[in-house]
Amino acid sequence: MIHLQHVTKEFAPKRGLFDVSFTVEPGMVFGFIGPNGAGKSTAIRQLMGLIQADSGHATIGGYDCWNQSQDVKRIVGYLPGEINLPGDFTGEQVLHLMQQLHQSKPERQSELLEQFPFETKTKIRKMSKGMKQKLALVGCFMKDAPVYLLDEPTSGLDPLMQERFLSLVDKERQRGKAILMSSHHFPEMEKSCDRAALIKEGRIIIEADIHELVRSSRKQYTIEFGLEAQAEQFALQIGSQRFQNHVSFFTSNERTLNQIIRLLTEYDVRAIQTSADDLEHVFLHYYSEEEPS
Question: What region holds the ABC transporter domain (predicted)?
Answer without folding.
Answer: 2-226
